[in-house]
Amino acid sequence: xxxxxxxxxWPNVADRENCEKCNALLSTDVFISYSRKDYxxxxxxxxxxxxxxxxxxxxxxxxxxxxxxxGIYSGDExxxxxxxxxxxxxxxxxxxxxxxxxxxxxxxxxxTALEYKKIIIPFRLDESPYNDSVxxxxxxxxxxxxxNQEKAIPKLLRAIRHHIPKHSGANRRFFEIPQSVKGATVxxxxxxxxxxxxxxxxxxxxxxxxxxxxxxxxxxxxxxxSDCGSFSDEISVHITDKKTPIVMLIGPAAVGKTMTxxxxxxxxxxxxxxxxxxxxxxxxxxxxxxxxCDSFHELINSAYAANGTSRMDCMLIKIIDRIGRCVFQxxxxxxKFYYDESDSTPLPHFLLQIIHSSNPFIWVIMLEPYWRDSFxxxxxxxxxxxxxxxxxxxxxxxxxxxxxxxxxxFFHGKSEVSFNPLLNLIKEEYPGILEIFENFNPITKFxxxxxxxxxxxxxxxxxxxxxxxxxxxxxxxxFPHLLWKELNK
Length: 489
Hints:
- The strands form six sheets. Strands 12-13-14-11-15-16-19 form a seven-stranded mixed sheet, sandwiched between helices. A five-stranded parallel sheet has the order 4-1-5-6-7, with helices on both faces.
- The chain contains 15 helices and 21 strands.
- It is an alpha/beta fold.
- Helix 5 packs parallel to helix 6 and helix 8 packs across helix 15.
- The protein is 29% helix and 21% strand.
């Protein structure tokens, strides 16, 4: 059997952990190493902070970057995440300050950048000297001093531009494609549209790892990907695996179903699982679905994932463990097919095909505190009750996921939610929803009142870039960990 990448399924890779296709598609221009103390006070970004100005300048100049916005990857368990982010970046930007020079983590990040022979640009936020461990590693490197911000940031941009390919249009990115993946499909981000290029080499002009530019690449096919993942509600779907449980993400539109899936997938990839779209789920004639499968991991890992959620409607995602077993199949049901205010539109054919499959089912019902108004929340409760009566089977598991709990007054820290106030809020906002799943078993009802579980969730934070697109920063890993733990009970 071909050795496949555990992340993207790319065949014949030498290293399942470091697939060249993944590295090419998920690479960023700049990895930013900094101290969180220079960026936030009391969990809020410092106003007019130089780090924010640097990030804005990178965005305005269409330079992609990796930045741990919330400081959640500063633990030993996330060392692999940091290592991969450094490895797949082109430039390592060290924001030197009193705080970052005292940080063991920034010192370790610099060591990792040197190990991978990255271009290192030291940018001094203050006049503090490098500490001993940092000094030894970067003392010989040219640095940029931030005495005058108006001059320092343009100088930084020029230094970065010197080391990365020039962009030939708004929001265009070129990726480094190693020789071993010639002919690979590459997704280039052109703002509102994505263009698919199949790259070929002209003779032997390219050596392994050299950056592709217009001089060296020939586009043999260009296709508009604005319809990527679009589908008709009349399509037919096919579930090849009839035994592995199907997880159905259901709920009205815009309550965070797809971004919950995105956050869960990112977490599982970090934990060593493989996550793959099932290409056989929809007909081979469905070109849009094929494109979506090709770009799935790029969409999942993009900082702009929130801008492409509609493309991921009606996908079947397989979760595969470390020994190659498929443990779950996940379907994100588009809200427009689940929740209809008039309650007069029948469910589409493809959704009924999934529901009537013989697989075990786990129903993940997305709830949002204060969603719309009381009228629509009552309508949603009625929809859930009707759905349960029509389609739930004995033995089906039900998980009520209360999304956006980070917006609630009893949310504290980065991931801590007081459970009893949360449960009381659900009962108040969605009266009678727990009673739908009341346990009538004469024995088990004494220690389990409801045949459902309730968990808090947050997908992350979202901010709007100067180009108008939403930039996504994932939530604490504790949230997807809690959901994953509940799925496996």
